[in-house]
Amino acid sequence: MSPHKKALFCFTNDLRLSDNPALNYVLQHTESVALVYIFNPQDFIAVRYQQAAMGQRRLCFIIQSLLVLKQQLQGYGHQLQILTGEPNSVLSALIKNEGFTLVGRTASAGYIEQHNWQRLELQWSKVSNEQASVNFISRWSNSLFDAEQISSLGDVFTSFSCFRRKLEKSLLPVAKPCQTWPQQLPKTVGLTEASAQFKVSKDWLSDNNVGASTLFKAGELAAKQHLSNYFLTSLPHSYKATRNALDGFDNSTKFSPYLANGNMSARQVWNALKHFELEQGPSESSYWIGFELLWREYFHWLAQRIGVKLFQFKGMASSAPLTSFFCCHAGFCKSLTTSWAPGATSDS
C-alpha cells in the first residue's frame, strides 16, 4: 500500500517521461497523483537590460514540449494541468485545496529555484499539527552524477580542468537512464473548481505557440529521434573540428535546446555516446562530446555549491576584474582600445 493517498508532481525543466527519477519516486509512493506545469507571469516582464526571462522562442518551445507531454500522459491515462501564477502561491493553493501530502519536483541547480523550494517547505513545516503533514521531495535528473558522487571527489571546483581531471581519474560511473513508469500506476487526480482558476486557457496556448523554429521540433519524442539520428551518422567523429562553425546545422550536436528544457537527460546523451563509441570506435571528436557534457556538469554543480556568488561580477575571485582602459598599466589598454575602435590594430 502506498504511503500517500494524493500526491502532486510539478514539472519544471524536466519535460520528459523517461529517465525522470523525481517523477518515478512520486508515482511509486502514492495512490493518486496530479501532474502540473506552472508558468510564472514574472518571467514575461522585462527587467534588467530590458530583457524578460521568457522570450517568445523559448516560450514556443516549452508550449510545444508541454503539448507533446500532455499527449504522452494521456496514453497512460493521466492529465497534465498547465497552470499560471506565482509558483509557490499556486502550489500552496493546490496543497490546501486538494489535500496533497506528497509534493515532488526535479531538483534544480538554480539559486532562485532552490530558494523558492526551501521557502515552500518551510511554510508548510509550520502548518498546524491538526492537518496532515506535507512531504516534499526532489531528485537530481538533469546531471550525469548525483550529489553523493560529486562529494566523493573532494574540493575540485577551483577550475574546470581540476574538476575534469579528478572526475576522469576517479572513473565514477554514469548511471544508466532509469525506468520512470512503475508497472502499477496511481490514479489520476483532477483539480477542483478552487484550483482550476489557475489553468491556462487553450486560447493563450494557441496564441503563444507561434514563431516556432523550423529546424527544431520540441518535445521528448523529437529529442529521442534527434539523439538516435545523430549517432547513426559519422558526425560525432567530426564534431570537434566543426563545432564552432557559424553556419551549417550538422556542425554541432544541437542537443542544447533539448537538454535545457529537459526533453532529454544528460545521462541519455552520455549513454548514446558510449553506445556509439562501442560500435563505431572512440575518437578525439567523440570524446569531445563527452567533454562538453562535463563542462555542463561542472557549472551545474558549481551553481549548487556557490549559489548566488556564481552571478557576481568578480565570480569566485577575491576582487572584480579591471574593465576600464583608464585603469591599465602604462596606457596599454587605452592605446589598444583607440586602435581597435577604427580597426587599426596590428592584426587588422
Set out the fold topology.
Blueprint: E1 4-11, H1 21-28, E2 30-39, H2 56-75, E3 80-84, H3 87-98, E4 102-106, H4 111-125, E5 135-139, H5 147-151, H6 160-170, E6 187-188, H7 193-196, H8 202-208, H9 220-230, H10 239-242, H11 256-260, H12 266-280, H13 284-306, H14 332-340
Parallel strand pairs: 1-2, 1-4, 2-3, 2-6, 4-5
Which properties best describe this structure?
single chain; 348 residues; alpha/beta; Rossmann fold; Serine Threonine Protein Phosphatase 5, Tetratricopeptide repeat; six-stranded parallel β-sheet; globular
Walk me through the structure.
The protein has 14 helices and 6 strands. By secondary structure, it is α/β, with parallel strands linked by helices. It folds into 3 domains: 1-141, HUPs (Rossmann fold, 3-Layer(aba) Sandwich); 145-174 and 216-314, Serine Threonine Protein Phosphatase 5, Tetratricopeptide repeat (Alpha Horseshoe), CATH 1.25.40; 318-348, no CATH class. Strands 1, 2, 3, 4, 5 and 6 form a 6-stranded parallel sheet that branches. Strand 2 (30-39), helix 2 (56-75) and strand 3 form a beta-alpha-beta unit. The longest helix is centred in the C-terminal third of the chain and has 23 residues, at 284-306. It is globular. The chain starts with a strand and ends in an 8-residue tail after the last helix.
